[in-house]
Amino acid sequence: MSNTNEGKCPVDHNQFTNKEENNTAGKCPVMHGANTSAGESVMDWWPNALNLDILHQHDTKTNPLGENFNYQEELKKLDVEALKKDLHNLMTDSQEWWPADWGHYGGLMIRMAWHSAGTYRTADGRGGGGSGSQRFAPLNSWPDNVSLDKARRLLWPIKKKYGNKVSWADLIILAGTIAYENMGLKTFGFAFGREDVWHPEKDTYWGAEKEWLAPSDSRYEDIDNPSTMENPLAAVQMGLIYVNPEGVNGKPDPQKTAEQVRETFKRMAMNDEETVALTAGGHTVGKTHGNGDASILGPDPEAAGVEEQGLGWSNPNKSGKGRYTVTSGLEGAWTSEPTKWDNGFFEMLFNHEWELRKSPAGALQWEPKTIKEEDKPVDVEDFSIRHNPMMTDADMAMKVDPIYKDISLKFMNDFDAFSDAFARAWFKLTHRDMGPKSCYFGPDVPSEDLIWQDPIEEGKTAYDVQAVKEKIESSGLSISEMVTTAWDSARTFRGSDKRGGANGARIRLEPQNKWEGNEPEKLAKVLNILEPIATEFGISVADTIVLAGNVGIEKAAKNGGIDISVPFSPGRGDATQEMTDVESFEPLEPVADGYRNWLKKDYVVSPEELLLDRTQLMGLTATEMTVLLGGLRVIGTNFNNSKHGVFTKNIGSLTNDFFTNLTDMEYIWEPTEGGIYNIRSRKNGQVKWTATRVDLVFGSNSILRSYSEFYAQDDNKEKFVNDFVKAWVKVMDADRFDLK
């Protein structure tokens, strides 16, 4: 695994190292750094050091619910109908401190839910509404989320009432769904099951910009080619959910905006029809807010004074609310009846000619050249006053782009088709990051299986596991072949959106069976042996692959002098090619696997940083990463049988040799061309081993070295094997939500 740091990379460098400067002023007898970000941390002093914080977040110490809290059990106590009734009542219960537009909070609640779910992106599965992270920075203070602090505060009495029986994550999404129902849409369904986090998700990279809404050029190799937007990002600018409503970099051009819309929605797992349905459906209700000077708004919630109590963007303009609210800076509703689910968006868009004008806040927006007074939406406070409707540049793209236009006209002429398409797209938008249906809970879960849910046939649980293992053991497969295939099958799991993993055995299907990192020829050989065994016993290939990996681990441990039995839970099923959306699985292809010492090509991000990213997505800790990598090295699972990092004479034996030799001061370490390191004997100068950066970081990084020294101890040989097995089982069972 060489590292010349060339090319682009799908992960962010700054989440693993700290490039921020730290300036402090004044003297104080109290250590500020213990309480605020002003203190100088280890990463402040050594900003290029490998930052392992990504593996330490969401520690149970931050969760007030405690280790024994089970959200699924709490959900069983929830009176769902009563909760839904309370939400319906809230929609028209306008509060004086933050009055509802036209007496209905529907538009605000939909925007809150949308902006919670809409941060999802397919590249790494991060973002989305599945964790309630909109409550925390930076999302709670994004410019695109102005006034959503008010929406969450309006929900607080309901959250307080139902307590632990409903998470903030579920409540936020449900509020948007109920808002649509209250305004007349027949929704597709709803599932509970999203568990809250309790501090910001630092693992999610939102962009390298240092200011909100910085010009989007920095995110693209070529601003005129949206596909060149930096991975894994999906939004066009820092602080936006999708695209700039005024146009590319604030310059209106509906066709150019259409191209950005297409790319950003694609990166959020939506096709053209879903994009049109969501754009139109989202703008069928509610309005934009720009009746005032945006520059006079107070600081965002994270920067506001303590007296604001978590609210932000205070508006000194007159009442600062109602008709004087300022969010995006654009001003106006899209339809004549913005509290009603209807076909008004398309009718307004296609039945008028539009021209550019400026909102009271100075934002560029499209307004009709001419429009009948009775077709204008009424004022949010005084229904005797009417205002022009408006369209964003993205709305105009639905009329200008040929593909979007055809879909829009189809929807305009078939309201039922539009309603159904939107209901399904809304469900997908708000559930895409929840994982398979086994993670869903509640009376409104749709019975229909959807391909984006990655459906899997039900697996068999009652069979003679030992007999299958004996058959595998006598199959002639090597330890390396068995362990490698099981690992490659399971390593695709992403805790971010609960996709991938060993369940379904999609490693035998397109596109995974062709992925370079899976060594297709070797994979085909192993599958040709394991699939007949699965057929003979009438079990899934998925279970058979994992069992083969377990057999390999047990043999390797025995070779190392320790008898163990790797725990196994039967019941995995097999997916079919028809159940597999090839395009949606392409982002799951690994570009590197430090555990197998493989790098597809050289990236700007270092191999060890790519290892951390993969580790975090799989839900592993730093100690689990350490023990797994050290064990896989000596078992002999490196890509293409590479010997880099295989610090043992007994390949195929599960021992702690990787750590004992890495920490042995008999050797010196020297770089060579191509990013490979020689490990040379101090006594005779001979090269004993070769290694990559990923190998040597476990001896160079002070934290990782402490783990390596621990497992190198003479009294921890057996503990190493036991810890390896626990971590291995965790990876194999990561996608077994039926066991959780």
Strand content: under 5%
Straight-line N-to-C gap: 36 Å
Tell me, rounded to a whole number, the average pLDDT.
94
Number of strands: 9
Strands in their spatial order, largest beta sheet? 7-8-9
Structural class: mainly alpha
The profile of the biggest β sheet is: 3 strands, antiparallel
Basic shape? elongated
* Continuous helix count: 23
Kindly provide the radius of gyration, computed on alpha-carbon positions and rounded to a whole number of angstroms.
Answer: 28 Å
Summarize this structure briefly.
The chain has helices spanning 42-45, 71-75, 80-91, 106-117, 148-162, 168-182, 254-266, 272-282, 344-350, 393-400, 402-412, 415-431, 465-473, 479-490, 520-537, 541-559, 582-585, 607-618, 622-635, 657-662, 693-700, 702-712, 717-732; strands at residues 287-288, 332-333, 354-358, 364-368, 592-593, 598-599, 667-671, 677-681, 687-691.
Account of the 3D structure:
Helix content is 35%, strand content 4%. With 740 residues, it is mainly alpha-helical. The strands form 4 sheets. The protein has a 3-stranded antiparallel beta sheet. A two-stranded antiparallel ribbon has the order 1-2. The protein is elongated and about 90 Å long. 48% of the residues are buried. Residues 1-6 and 19-25 have low confidence and may be disordered.
